Amino acid sequence: MARVQLTISALPAHVRTARLMATAVARRAGIAESILDEVRLAVGEACSRAVEAHRAHCPDQSIRLELIDSAESRPPEADQTNGTASNNGQAAQRFEVVVSDQAPVEEPSSTVPPHISEGASIYMDEQTPPGGVSGLSPEVGLAVIAGLADDVSIEPNEHGTVVRMSWPLGNADAEDTELVG
């Protein structure tokens, strides 16, 4: 399993660096070319959300990204701890991006859209901080991430929020061609 760790400061310009790094590592890991834009956009959304939260609450704290290529086999117990599906003791081959921020978590609201995990409810009805670029509330970015990534987990805790996104490795274009022809 290859793992790349990247730490960025809470500056909007560093989101581009994170997107470029994630795209390069995803390409090296074997993500299908047709999925690379989804990876780049999802990582950009997750990092932008983290940067906005940090700028409002803890601008001096760093944001951490982990880019994980699970193409190599792992022991079955590793699959159980992080929720990765396995087949006959072999780990599913996935590319995972984990974006961890240290911004304080707000109180959860009472409603959660069905397409977003329950942990994401903390962002509902929260306004973009002054000077925010999007003018949209953070749940829009989380909804975009949920639409772009194959698997998404949003885990708020006392130290911030962890957004996990993953995509299957392999050439999806070749699989589509086989199904059609």
UniProtKB/TrEMBL annotation:
Membrane-spanning parts: none
- Quote one Gene Ontology molecular function term: protein serine/threonine kinase activity
Keyword Transmembrane helix listed: no
The entry's keywords: Kinase, Serine/threonine-protein kinase, Transferase
Q: What is this protein called?
A: Anti-sigma regulatory factor (Ser/Thr protein kinase)
User: What broad taxonomic lineage does this protein's source fall under?
Assistant: Bacteria, Bacillati, Actinomycetota, Actinomycetes, Streptosporangiales
Q: Can you name the source organism?
A: Haloactinospora alba
Query: Per UniProt, what is one Pfam family of this protein?
Result: HATPase_c_2
Where does the Histidine kinase/HSP90-like ATPase domain start and stop, copy by copy?
8-167
